[in-house]
Amino acid sequence: MKKMLIAYDGSADAKAAVTLAGHLFDGSTAVVLTVWEGLATVISRAEAGLSSSLDFERIEAECEQAATDLAVDGAGHARAAGLQAEARAVQRRGSVANAILEEAAEAGAELIVVGSRGLSSVKSFLLGSVSRAVLQRSALPVLVAPSAARGSEPSAIDEPFSHARL
């Protein structure tokens, strides 16, 4: 494995995905990606009418810095798991899944690693699933790590790859 992209949002499921990637691909190179959404986009979708009183540039800069810090945290987890990792944060322009796929192509990744929220099939269908969208649209292999909530016993933490469906 030359290079992989790991989607990282700081959740327990994202951390489980990083750990799984480290166990399976120890020593490989990884780009740890955090996708962030600017406040202007959120407000325009919500039609909150607050735009005249907000300093969008400052808020955007703070959102970007928070996402960068999160990606750096994820890269630290990846290094601790045995990967050679770099952090990357990108602003969402379309869907999160599309941002992940675009960044994987730009990074020259051979594999995409994502966590699973462990939603029931009904909730996943109704709410959407980033991991499902990545799986459906990717031309690259995708490794979906099981939800951290499904295996909280110590053996699941010590050996997360024993629970993966490969």
* Tally of structural domains: 1
The name CATH uses for the topology is: Rossmann fold
Assign the CATH class: Alpha Beta
SSE series: EHEHHEHEHHEH
Percent helix range? 40-55%
Total number of strands: 5
Structural class: alpha/beta
Strands side by side in the biggest sheet: 3-2-1-4-5
Average pLDDT, all residues: 82
Q: Which residues form runs of ≥5 with pLDDT under 50?
A: 122-127, 152-158, 160-166
Name given to the CATH homologous superfamily: HUPs
Number of helices: 7
CATH architecture classification: 3-Layer(aba) Sandwich
Distance between the termini: 16 Å
Largest sheet: 5 strands, parallel
Estimated radius of gyration: 16 Å
Q: Can you tell me the overall shape? A: globular
Percentage of residues in strands: 15-25%
Write structural notes for this entry.
With 166 residues, the protein is an alpha/beta fold. It has a single domain, classed as 3-Layer(aba) Sandwich (Rossmann fold), CATH 3.40.50.620. Helices cover 47% and strands 18% of the residues. The chain has helices spanning 12-24, 39-46, 56-80, 96-107, 121-127, 130-137, 154-158, and strands at 3-7, 29-36, 84-91, 111-115, 142-145. Helix 1 packs parallel to helix 3 (56-80) and helix 4 packs across helix 6 (130-137).
Would you kindly provide a brief summary of this structure?
This protein has 166 residues and is an alpha/beta fold. The protein has seven helices and five strands.
Question: What layout of secondary structure does this protein have?
Answer:
Elements: E1 3-7, H1 12-24, E2 29-36, H2 39-46, H3 56-80, E3 84-91, H4 96-107, E4 111-115, H5 121-127, H6 130-137, E5 142-145, H7 154-158
Helix pairs in contact: 1-3, 4-6
